[in-house]
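Hey, I was hoping to borrow your eyes for a little while. No rush at all, and the record is pasted right below:
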Amino acid sequence: MIVSLSHRELQNYKIVVGDKEFTNQSADILLIDSIMTRIYFEPYKIKPLLRIDNMLVNYWLADVTQYDHMLEFTISNDFWIKYYNKETQNQINFANTNYKNDPMAIDKYVGIFDSSNLIKIIRDNLIG
């Protein structure tokens, strides 16, 4: 995985992955197990953009803890699976709140439910 940081005011940063350090450059990480990653940056009190594998990452979905001088998170082989599952679960929770458990509206908003029964009903109605 490639970890990088950007911000228009960013002056210096250091990515610490396990016992390896990368200064002012992207970190290319070969993952075997979960690794605690810390990114120290200057100036303090900015919110830098975090990219993993060149994809912009949402701090909340990626379980990134932000301090005024550092980002802290764990990277693992299943990082993107956890990220996608948390995003999907959040969309389902939002849809359940707004669409009052209407499976069609939730499916339209989230797009993960099995619609084969509905297709069968429509097909049976069309065919007669």
Remarks:
- The chain has two domains: 2-77, 81-127.
